């Protein structure tokens, strides 16, 4: 059962990885039953077999590392799921691990190597089973309609194989909709009309579709398909008798009506009457109080309290529920915006012996009391009753006080202040205050409850955003697209972002419930899963990564710039900015910062853009110690180029030409130094073009080749492609000749094709070409491995110089071993004579006063060697010697550090003084003494622990915490290591640009492109982004509550009424004011006000 559950989970992955309209309808039990019966499942039932498989490195499961191209990594290890080189299947599995899928996590950690169910074999089997089940569903529907139309077309796939596409169009009688379902891709060898018709009908019969129900055909305008005499249409019509079938489907007159009753909440209670009451109530305050206090028989009194008139104190039903509700929610004193008309009381006064009636009202001033020190305190216990016009003490009323303030209410306005002061100081009132305090501590105050509610809401939405950010980090770090054709959950065209959330939701009940309740509700519904939200998070994450890179540059202080440009898919020239610097750990890194569009190719424009980027990010150009560009004149020009303009701003910014690009130029120069070398590379490209131009020719070549080796095409920029092309031709020399010979002798081929094949055969059947293939295969192989080493970020300029010297010695050795390569070429081609020996020799026409007596004629071997072989080798050596000069100049300044333990102390002093003089602003005069001390320290280390490289020395200082002892040695090493050896990091950003800005996303805006690019290119930083930092920043930007200080000058006339109509003012240190009367202004004078918008 455990294995069936694992296969069921794996099927869930494929539903998202391979989205089709039919796949969600698959029965998982069928797939699980099928896979459980496969050999993969049966091999796990034998414990001995499992043990042998684990220990056998040649087992099928152990080769699953080839899926991800990561050597020596166990695919069952969870660590693989976060590796940068994994495929999308492992990326989806990583989502589930991050979503706390304990079952999958335990399986990946504990499963044996041959029972992981994530290997290529199991994946392919499940794909095949899903395809079979889906195809059977389509076939059953097609056969059930008894009439269908076939749609077909043919194309050539990436491997050069002709593929025939079949699609069935029919009416689905169950859903009353027209469907067009894909059936199959079929390999086609005969593309004539008869051949296509035979393939079509045979395939339909094989998969189980009754061809007699075929009622129509749909093709493009190709003659082989649409031809009315020999086309596929004619051949199909000749085989199948047409029949017109008409169907009448009864209309669905029944209408399903459904009423949905939405309730705010249901609270069960032992009392049925209270239960019905709770189900009917809509007030959220009542639900909150009921949830906290718990419903009971007294719920009716609380309902009466809330829904009748909570502000009317005379209607309160005094019990524990009421007291607890008042303690939690508080009450309104009914003093604000009240004219106290109901408090009108008739009094009589004697004026000159005559009794005259008059009226008194409750004064709002009784709400506040002024102390002797002029402080104003609010009487919070008073409450005015609008129904009776009396004044009550809420505390005494709740806790059964005995004064008139607690029983019938106070209304003697003639002695208001006197009676209130007497009541405040009474023992009964003070005891009621203490009772309220104790009661409030037991049930908490309303503000505490709000805090709990806010914390609960905050925790909920944080859990949602955690999953959103996890998906964005995974997709953006791999450069995958986020959006699809639509943005609806449940759609198979909604894009990777929604697809990943749906995948997590299958194993995460929390996210599944959130999606069910909040998504696809339209505008006005908050789900935090919309396009706007994830684009805002992309901006925040990109700014976070960008800020971290800038801070690292500033911390490292010394840096170098690497710049290059390329056009994108929308023909916009993108300038890439990359910075190289040293981390605190001592490791050099090259970080991408951004693309700049349409800067121009002039040196002045490029320099202005560099200065603009540095100034915008507050990076000091004076700390630049290197520049890395290709060999273009607008960048490398020593007088007006970009490097000259940067040097004018910082003289220490040395220019380092790209060593990998220079190596390509060396090979290109040698390949064009003589006619034979040019013809050789043209021949390789012509051979690839000839076979790839036709699927039939490619099939002939494939049948002649052995293994998975195939011929390759050339590349103008990547010389590794030239090595692949030469190597494949060298290994398949006889097979290529055989394929060309078959095509040349095939009478069914066109005369032009046979002529081209004959021309290629003539060029290949020569000893000269065989020697060129052998020599260039060896040379380009060494160039290829050297170029890959030069492209590493950790390489330093000393290693670059050593590699160039090694190539010079290697080419010299090849130059002196011509006979060896001639012998190898004869063995490969089985040709022993040069082409000039076979052809008739040309005689030089001499003047009348000369003769042929003293002329020395070279044989064919010497001619080829002197005119082709030697010039190629000399050109390579000459170019290598010329290109290495740029690296020698830089290494010369730091040369003593490379061999500081091998030279004398006087030599160290002399060369360190030269370096100090050049970097006088970075290194002090005492630098020589520190170098002598550093030399002594290295000599004390054991030989096996001594560092022999510049990088090793710096890391040794940092690891041993010796920066305080050798501070300027550390500075010198950092300045040397931050100089770039190549600009390959900028080239790599172009590869990321092509993945991000595709033809489907060609209208991406520049800012959005930069955000996606930095998250993908700097994926190492992206995956380490802290979730809480991004969420907190997001909440700060989304907060709508702002505090705006407003200072009012009371010395001038102040019109308070218009402001009070729209803004609620709060006095700092005083009470809230809405009625700006003269008495209120006396309180506000000389105070600051704040308004909450």
From TrEMBL:
Gene Ontology molecular function terms on file: protein dimerization activity
Annotated ranges, domain DUF4371: 108-231, 404-641
Alphabetical list of InterPro entries matching this protein: DUF4371 (IPR025398), HATC_C_dom (IPR008906), RNaseH-like_sf (IPR012337)
Region (Disordered): 42-63
Domain HAT C-terminal dimerisation: 963-1021
One Pfam family from the record: DUF4371
PANTHER family given in the database record: PTHR45749, ZINC FINGER MYM-TYPE PROTEIN 1-LIKE (PTHR45749:SF23)
Descriptive protein name: TTF-type domain-containing protein
Organism for this UniProt entry: Aphis glycines
């Amino acid at each position: 059962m455990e294995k069936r559950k694992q296969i069921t989970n794996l099927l869930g992955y494929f539903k998202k990885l391979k989205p089709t309209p039919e796949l969600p309808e698959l029965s998982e039990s069928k797939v699980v039953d099928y896979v459980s019966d496969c050999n993969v499942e049966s091999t796990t039932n034998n414990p001995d077999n499992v043990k042998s498989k684990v220990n056998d490195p040649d087992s099928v499961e152990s080769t699953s590392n080839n899926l991800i191209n990561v050597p020596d990594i166990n695919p069952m290890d969870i660590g693989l799921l976060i590796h940068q080189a994994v495929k999308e299947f492992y990326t989806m599995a990583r989502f589930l691990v991050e979503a706390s899928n304990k079952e999958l996590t335990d399986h990946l950690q504990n499963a044996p190597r041959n029972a992981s169910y994530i290997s290529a074999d199991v994946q392919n089997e499940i794909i095949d089973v899903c395809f079979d089940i889906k195809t059977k569903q389509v076939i059953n529907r097609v056969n059930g309609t008894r009439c269908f139309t076939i749609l077909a077309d043919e194309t050539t796939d990436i491997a050069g194989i002709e593929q025939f596409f079949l699609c069935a169009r029919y009416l689905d009688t169950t859903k009353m909709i027209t469907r067009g379902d894909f059936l199959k891709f079929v390999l086609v060898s005969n593309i004539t009309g008869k051949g296509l018709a035979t393939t079509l009908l045979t395939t339909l019969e094989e998969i189980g579709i009754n061809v007699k129900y075929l009622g129509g055909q749909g093709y493009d305008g190709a003659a082989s398909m649409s031809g009315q005499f020999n086309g596929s249409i004619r051949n199909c019509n000749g085989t199948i008798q047409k029949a017109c079938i008409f169907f009448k489907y009864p209309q669905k007159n029944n209408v399903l009506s459904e009423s949905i009753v939405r309730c705010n909440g249901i609270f069960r209670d032992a009392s049925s009457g209270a239960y019905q009451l709770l189900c009917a109530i809509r007030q959220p305050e009542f639900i909150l109080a009921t949830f906290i206090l718990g419903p009971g028989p007294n719920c009716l009194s609380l309902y009466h309290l809330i829904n009748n008139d909570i502000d009317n104190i005379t209607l309160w039903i005094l019990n524990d529920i009421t007291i607890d509700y008042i303690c939690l929610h508080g009450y309104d004193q009914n003093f604000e915006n009240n004219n106290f008309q109901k408090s009108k009381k008739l009094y009589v006064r004697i004026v000159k012996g005559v009794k005259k009636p008059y009226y008194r009202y409750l004064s709002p001033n009784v709400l506040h009391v002024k102390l002797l020190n002029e402080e104003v305190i609010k009487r919070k216990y008073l409450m005015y009753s609008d129904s009776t016009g009396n004044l009550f003490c809420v505390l005494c009323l709740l806790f059964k006080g005995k004064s008139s303030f607690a029983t019938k209410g106070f209304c003697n306005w003639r002695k208001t202040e006197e009676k209130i002061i007497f009541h405040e100081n009474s023992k009964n009132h003070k005891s009621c205050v203490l009772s309220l305090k104790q009661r409030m501590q037991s049930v908490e105050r309303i503000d505490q409850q709000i805090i709990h509610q806010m914390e609960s809401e905050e925790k909920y939405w944080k859990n949602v955003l955690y999953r959103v950010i996890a998906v964005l980090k995974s997709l953006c770090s791999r450069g995958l697209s986020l959006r699809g054709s639509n943005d609806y959950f449940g759609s198979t065209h909604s894009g990777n972002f929604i697809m990943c959330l749906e995948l997590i939701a299958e194993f995460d009940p929390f996210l599944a419930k959130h999606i069910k309740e909040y998504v696809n509700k339209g505008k006005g519904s908050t789900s935090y899963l919309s396009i706007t939200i994830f684009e805002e998070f992309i901006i925040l994450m990109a700014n976070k990564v960008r800020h971290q890179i800038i801070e690292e540059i500033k911390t490292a202080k010394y840096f170098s710039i690497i710049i290059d440009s390329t056009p994108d898919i929308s023909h916009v020239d993108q300038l890439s900015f990359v910075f190289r610097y040293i981390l605190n750990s001592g490791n050099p890194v090259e970080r991408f910062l951004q693309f700049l569009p349409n800067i121009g190719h002039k040196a002045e424009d490029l320099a202005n853009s560099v200065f603009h980027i540095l100034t915008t990010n507050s990076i000091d150009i004076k700390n630049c110690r290197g520049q890395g560009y290709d060999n273009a004149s607008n960048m490398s020009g020593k007088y007006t180029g970009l490097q000259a303009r940067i040097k004018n701003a910082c003289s220490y910014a040395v220019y380092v030409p790209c060593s990998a690009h220079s190596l390509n130029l060396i090979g290109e120069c040698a390949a064009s130094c003589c006619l034979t070398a040019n013809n050789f590379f043209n021949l390789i490209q012509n051979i690839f073009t000839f076979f790839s131009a036709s699927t039939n020719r490619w099939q002939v070549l494939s049948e002649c080749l052995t293994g998975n080796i195939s011929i390759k095409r050339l590349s103008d920029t990547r010389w590794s492609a030239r090595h692949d092309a030469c190597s494949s031709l060298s290994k398949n020399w006889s097979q290529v000749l055989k394929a060309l010979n078959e095509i040349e002798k095939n009478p069914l081929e066109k005369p032009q094709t046979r002529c081209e094949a004959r021309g290629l055969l003539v060029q290949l059947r020569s000893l000269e070409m065989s020697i060129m293939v052998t020599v260039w295969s060896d040379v380009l192989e060494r160039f290829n491995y050297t170029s890959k080493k030069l492209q590493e970020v950790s390489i330093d300029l000393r290693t670059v110089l050593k590699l160039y010297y090694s190539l010079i010695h290697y080419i010299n050795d090849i130059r002196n071993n011509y006979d060896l390569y001639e012998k190898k070429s004869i063995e490969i081609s089985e040709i022993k004579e040069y082409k000039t020996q076979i052809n008739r020799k040309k005689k030089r026409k001499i003047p009348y006063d000369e003769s042929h007596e003293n002329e020395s004629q070279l044989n064919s071997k010497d001619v080829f060697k002197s005119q082709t072989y030697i010039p190629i080798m000399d050109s390579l050596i000459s170019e290598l010697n010329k290109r290495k000069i740029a690296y020698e100049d830089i290494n010369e300044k730091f040369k003593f550090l490379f061999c500081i333990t091998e030279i004398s102390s006087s030599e160290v002093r002399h060369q360190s003084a030269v370096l100090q003089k050049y970097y006088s602003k970075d290194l002090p005069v005492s630098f020589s003494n520190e170098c002598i001390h550093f030399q002594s320290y290295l000599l004390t280390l054991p030989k096996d622990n001594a560092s022999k490289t510049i990088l090793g020395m710096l890391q040794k200082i940092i690891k041993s915490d010796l920066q305080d002892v050798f501070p300027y040695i550390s500075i010198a090493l950092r300045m040397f290591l931050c100089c770039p050896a190549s600009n390959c990091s900028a080239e790599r950003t172009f590869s990321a640009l092509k993945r991000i800005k595709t033809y489907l996303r060609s209208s991406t805006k520049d800012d959005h492109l930069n955000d996606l690019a930095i998250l993908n290119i700097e994926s190492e930083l992206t995956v380490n982004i802290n979730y809480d930092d991004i969420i907190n920043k997001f909440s700060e930007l989304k907060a709508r509550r702002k505090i705006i200080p407003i200072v009012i000058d009371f010395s001038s006339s102040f019109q308070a009424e218009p402001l009070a109509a729209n803004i609620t003012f709060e006095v700092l240190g005083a009470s809230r004011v809405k009625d700006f009367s003269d008495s209120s202004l006396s309180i506000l004078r000389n105070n600051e006000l704040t308004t909450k918008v």
